[in-house]
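User: Fold this; tokens only.

Assistant: Input:
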Amino acid sequence: MRLVIIGAGFAGMYAALSAARLRDIQGVSPEAFEIALVSPEPTLVIRPRLYEPKPETLTASLLDVLKAVDVAYVKGSAESIDTKSQVVDIVAAKGAKQRLTYDRLIVAAGSRLFRPSIPGLAEHGFSVDQLDDAIALDRHLHHLVGWPVSRMRDTVVVAGGGFTGIEVATEMPARLREILGKDAKPRVIIVERNSAIAPDMGEGPRPIIEAALRKLGVETRLGVGVTSLDKSGITLSSGEHIDSGTVIWAAGMRAAPLTAQIPAERDNFGRLLVDPDLRVLSVPGVFATGDAARAACDEVGNYALMSCQHATRMGAFAGNNAAAELLGVPTKPYRQKAYVTCLDLGEAGALFTRGWERKVEMVGDEAKKTKKEINTVWIYPPRAERAAALDSADPERVTDL
């Protein structure tokens, strides 16, 4: 038997650990039941932290933890999936190809930033979507010190006033002063198409976010979109042109393109529709999890978001259930009723809310301590010790925060 998992993000990692856990519980050897994790690198990118400085440090190796639980790592990118023949074609470095057959497949390929065809965006826009994107932005920011002092050099525009856009923008004043000098006067502007900042956060948290932006001097342009970018900056739908040497796109996510190879229904974000066990509807033998899946969290209409908080728990359920089918034991329907947000607000602290109604529980320095613990402890892989690693992936115990 072979279970193939595509993706080494939060969902893929916990899918592998959870499947290995159930295999261990059932007393089945790794030789009789192979679990293979496919990814270009055996590395977890700590994606929720890519708005921070030094993004090249925000990774964690998975080799030791995978070895500890007898999960095979397959280096390469999944190029194609044939769900009828149950085959995945993989392309590794220098074009080397490999074909893996599977008895069960878990698609945990993650998501990508949605980049619309706005003139100049591809040439002049930055992002913090993937590790390489964040590194490119960080290098660019450090290169600004060699530019002539000007309003353009010191102005950063963040397109998108959602969760990521706010964290990028509120971190930016301190990052720029660190690079350009304490006497620098950075100007940071958030552009948001909706009429209010943080449109998904609701009325309760919004005044706290707005106060933090004012404290940091972050400006907003609301109710307008981006029409074009060029070397000199950005033009808005209102006709305003903002001189800026740094435009960061942070508006919208889509499931990774690989999900399109599964012949199944998808939502507007490209996520595969799944049943409570995270099986892809109408495609036997295929599960989807994390940002690749549209999964119900509860019985009242809440669906998992594209976040590591949901991906972690979804991965544990997907791995358990795919393994359960192969081992002939009962599955466990995915549920994740608890939901929190912890929004970093740079030097203005942070904001912690609980529940889908976003009830504010902590603000300022208290929330910042929690955010730091989440970012530096909770979201990192478990230690590479077999019992601890397997225990961390129990779908009934994976933290709901």
